[in-house]
Design brief:
About 40% of the residues lie in helices and about 25% in strands. It is of the alpha+beta class. Strand 6 and strand 7 form a beta hairpin. The chain binds 2-deoxy-2-fluoro-alpha-D-galactopyranose. One of its GO terms (molecular function) is galactokinase activity.
């Protein structure tokens, strides 16, 4: 059985599909797929993924649902290039039916465009990789409904991409989906890589793989788990958040209500600064440094004179943050909340001072949380420059903390921070198949 909020998304997308999209063409369809993919909160490991480091996120209940029908026809003798015809609408603007056609030669847009590129870019990965170059026609008609707050650092775009990917896999079926991949390739991992590529190439966003990976691969069977992802090998470990019945904890997310976009502005600058830092480290330490993942704090310290202050601090954040992820993972497995909290606080400080991805409003929120009774640690989560903070607090103080944040943030910033408690949620999955 679905949670009321998930059921709400399913009902909304189903209604949009039947009211706006179920036209003459799709009436031939015998069944509709209902799929979902979640947003995420990152417990720790920020801005480490695009330098092949470690991240430690959990999926959250806020998700995107796709409800739709589709077909794949392959005519081996046809000379026409393979294409995908997409017709879709979103709950944000259900009256606007989008129609996008792409073929295997369609190039990604050169400039940031509409949200529909997240969808088209994702479908393109399957079209280009799993289908023959000629003769395939993929038709898909679908409605999208989501409740991941947009631009809040909780991965609304990754949950959209991963839900669309999951839906396209349903249409392709096991015969075609991932047919270009080596035998034994993990669908959740390949899906994440494809969705990241869609975002990098079709949406002008140089993001790492964390968000798509968590949305795609968070465990649907092992309750209460996080993913510790090695962004070099793209392998992951499912880590249990060990609750002590005598001393339970809660994770609280609060939103600064300052929205951000990772496509524009500061995020790409950080990516570039990491590359600069790596080049300097390579000059001094040689080829053993392929990315910042390979450097220790001592390595960075030794290069301080060769780096300007900004580059030095960027590198210091990344290498210390990787170490904090490893320390947090061990502490979390042992239920050592004090250590987890300390690492979270240090991570925030590092983002504030070294990586400069926080902002005044987020700092206010984190400060309010860190000083509240029963709180082990609090930090900015996600890309930054706004967005949410995540706080680890003794369960008995969770309700009080949420009320405190709500009241004090409103008083200090004049905005609603809509705090909520989150527990690790499952990753992308097929919820149902509706037959007509
Ligand atoms: C954003 C990006 F999409 C992720 O890949 C990651 O870099 C994160 O910012 C920062 O840790 O969510």
């Amino acid at each position: 059985s679905l949670s009321p909020s998930m059921q709400g998304l399913v009902d909304t997308s189903k209604k949009i599909y039947h009211d706006k999209l179920h036209d003459v063409k799709s009436k031939d369809a015998k069944q509709a797929w209902v799929v979902t993919a979640p947003g995420r909160v990152n417990l720790i490991g920020e801005h480490t993924d695009y330098t092949q480091g470690f991240v430690f996120p959990l999926a959250i209940e806020y998700s995107t649902v796709v409800y739709g029908t589709g077909s794949l026809v392959i005519n081996k003798n046809a000379e026409e290039v393979s294409k995908a015809n997409l017709k879709f609408a979103s709950a944000t603007n259900p009256d606007k039916v989008e129609q996008v056609s792409i073929d295997v030669n369609t190039q990604p847009p050169k400039e940031a465009g509409s949200w529909t590129w997240y969808v088209a870019g994702t479908v393109a990965q399957y079209l280009m990789k799993d289908l023959p170059k000629q003769g395939a026609v993929l038709d898909a008609t679908f409605a999208i409904a989501g409740n991941v707050p947009l631009g809040s650092g909780l991965s609304s775009s990754a949950s959209l991409e991963v839900a669309v990917a999951q839906f396209i896999e349903c249409i392709l079926g096991p015969e075609h989906a991932f047919s270009s991949e080596p035998p034994g390739a993990l669908p959740a991992k390949i899906r994440a890589i494809r969705c990241q590529k869609a975002e990098n190439e079709w949406c002008q966003s140089p993001c790492g793989i964390m968000d798509q990976y968590c949305s795609s691969a968070a465990s649907s069977t092992q309750k209460g788990t996080l993913l510790c992802i090695d962004c070099r090998t793209n392998d992951f470990e499912v880590v249990q958040m060990k609750q002590d019945p005598d001393n339970p904890v809660a994770l609280i997310v609060a939103n600064s209500a300052v929205t951000h976009s990772i496509g524009g502005g500061e995020y790409p600058i950080r990516v570039q600064q990491c590359k600069e830092a790596t080049q300097i480290l390579q000059k001094v330490h040689g080829d053993r440094i392929q990315t910042l993942r390979d450097a220790t704090v001592e390595d960075v310290l030794k290069c301080q004179k060769q780096m300007d202050d900004v580059i030095y601090r960027r590198a210091r954040h990344v290498v210390t943050e990787n170490a904090r992820v490893i320390a947090t993972k061990t502490a979390l497995e042992e239920g050592d909340w004090k250590i987890v909290g300390q690492q979270m606080n240090l991570s925030h400080l590092s983002m504030q001072k070294d990586y400069e991805t926080s902002c005044e409003e987020v700092d206010i929120l984190v400060d309010l949380a860190q000083k509240y009774k029963g709180v082990y640690g609090s930090r900015l989560t996600g890309g930054g420059f706004g967005g949410c903070c995540v706080t680890l607090v003794a369960k008995e103080n969770a309700k009080g903390l949420m009320e405190h944040l709500q009241k004090e943030y409103q008083a200090k910033v004049g905005k609603d921070c809509t705090p909520f408690e989150t527990t690790p949620a499952p990753g992308a999955r097929v919820l149902a198949i509706d037959t007509f």
